[in-house]
Design brief:
Blueprint lengths: L3 E10 L2 E11 L11 H32 L7 H21 L1 H4 L5 H33 L7 H23 L5 H34 L6 H33 L11 H22 L10 H4 L5
Antiparallel strand pairs: 1-2
């Protein structure tokens, strides 16, 4: 139910400001009667479904283009990043397309699991980008890189393990304190993702900026690193703030059926727009691999 306050409004009547009217006012603008209508719910959730499906399609097309460009390279970080983007956005598209069934799953823990998994995969997808930048930075500074990938897998493994423990604890009875802890955990990992982008994106940016050779490629790489760092930091910080707020204020709760507008704004800002922008910025294909036969020219 929306929170109401009583506001006294003065009305000019008979030449004097002498009439006071008490009117209700709702601060929870996303939970009003119009927002809870079935037509509006369908509009918001099906629009989210279409947008996620579009982003997933773009990621799949880009993955296919990369594979056709360098078929012999195997699974590179770039390919894995686009594949995970396709999976995350594809899952979101399916969930929002079937929102009528998802939001009424019982026991409710199944609903929470389905809605949490894409968010966890989103974290893994974009921390993979942090790993890629960290490897570039360490290689350029002649620092060891052999521990970076194990750290990435350990961090993600711990995250999934803790989340599974939270789901198990929530399964028998969803106590408000346990639900709040689950949301705060999600908020904390979002904060650390933003911190990772800030640290390694910033390091890579300043390293490129100090690079002595001025070239067009250097400027493009500076723009790429700065843009992706800013976009990803912003989206993870927004997620951190909103999820933490929803842990203490039920009127700011996301992933509920009667907050379709809040869901639309939230997921557009923290996943759809960032994913679209990052895929656009990182759209450049890797250089073609020149085979030995292509390099050999017989003497005539």
């Amino acid at each position: 139910m929306a929170s109401l306050v009583r506001i006294e409004r003065f009305v000019f009547k008979n030449g004097m400001w002498n009439y006071r009217e008490v009117v209700p006012y709702s601060f929870d603008w996303w939970t009003n009667e119009n927002d809870n209508s079935k037509q509006r719910q369908e509009g918001f959730f099906y629009t989210l479904c279409a947008l996620y499906a579009l982003v997933a399609f773009v990621a799949l097309v880009q993955l296919t283009r990369i594979q056709m460009r360098v078929p012999g390279y195997g699974w590179t970080t770039q390919k894995a990043f686009h594949l995970m983007n396709f999976v995350v956005n594809g899952l979101r598209a399916i969930l929002f397309g079937l929102y009528k069934k998802v939001f009424f799953l019982r026991p409710k823990i199944f609903e929470m699991i389905l809605l949490d998994i894409p968010g966890l995969l989103f974290f893994s997808t974009y921390t993979l980008l942090v790993l890629f930048w960290a490897e570039i930075y360490h290689q350029a500074r002649s620092l060891p890189t052999n521990k970076l990938r194990p750290v990435y897998f350990i961090v993600n493994g711990v995250m999934y393990f803790v989340q599974v423990c939270i789901w198990i604890y929530l399964r028998p009875s969803q106590k408000p304190i346990a639900v709040a802890v689950a949301k705060l955990f999600f908020s904390v990992i979002s904060f650390f993702a933003a911190l990772g982008f800030l640290i390694y994106g910033g390091r890579l940016f300043f390293m490129l900026r100090r690079f002595p050779i001025e070239s067009r490629g250097r400027q493009k790489k500076l723009y790429e690193v700065a843009s992706v760092t800013g976009i990803c930091c912003t989206c993870f910080l927004i997620r951190c703030f909103v999820v933490a707020l929803s842990a203490f204020d039920k009127h700011a709760d996301i992933d509920v059926l009667n907050h379709p507008l809040l869901n639309f704004v939230y997921y557009t800002l923290v996943e759809i727009v960032p994913s679209s922008l990052v895929l656009f910025i990182l759209r450049k294909l890797p250089p073609r691999r020149v085979s030995v036969s292509d390099q050999y020219h017989p003497i005539e």
